[in-house]
Design a protein that fits this description.
Elements (H helix, E strand, L loop, with lengths): L2 E3 L2 H7 L2 H31 L3 H32 L5 H4 L14 H5 L3 H22 L5 E3 L2 H12 L1
Antiparallel strand pairs: 1-2
Helix pairs in contact: 2-3, 2-6, 3-6
């Protein structure tokens, strides 16, 4: 069965430098807010928490940081494509795609301070938006219908 691919150029053209730059700024600002909260401001919040809640907060801190690192790496790859430093085909290599990040558990989030929940939610939202863009970069396969394939083979045979 034959498979055709859409060109990556049309998909990449939707990722304008302005969009990539805006997402990059958003990710960097969020990363700075996350660092400030978990390194400094969150200390006061942690003092009133149970040991289990502190562990949950630490786990969520790691999840948020991982999400943001994957997002920033993906955006830097998009910038490299736009600058001509790597090809569009190279950019869809699994090593250059958006890395997987663990989801946050709703039960754990309910017990965390409001500011922590807000930052976690923002990181999830940004990650989901970038994941949709990343998914759009994979060449879509168009399957030729079995009837058309059979018809083509019959034409070739006669």
């Amino acid at each position: 069965m034959s498979v055709g691919f859409l060109g990556l150029a049309s998909i990449e053209s939707e990722l304008t430098p302005r969009l990539v730059s805006g997402l990059y700024v958003e990710a960097m600002v969020l990363a700075d807010e996350v660092r400030a909260y978990f390194d400094e401001q969150g200390r006061g919040d942690r003092e009133g928490m149970s040991p289990l809640e502190r562990v949950s907060l630490s786990c969520e801190s790691i999840k948020v940081t991982t999400r943001l690192m994957h997002i920033i790496a993906w955006l830097l790859t998009r910038r490299a494509v736009q600058a001509g430093e790597i090809s569009q085909e190279e950019s869809i290599n699994p090593d250059r795609r958006l890395g997987e990040a663990a989801d946050s558990e709703a039960i754990a989030l309910d017990r965390l301070p409001i500011r922590a929940r807000s930052l976690i939610s923002a990181s999830l939202d940004l990650y989901q938006r970038v994941a949709r863009l990343d998914a759009g970069l994979v060449p879509h396969q168009h399957m030729i219908s079995p009837a058309r394939s059979l018809f083509s083979r019959l034409e070739a045979a006669f």
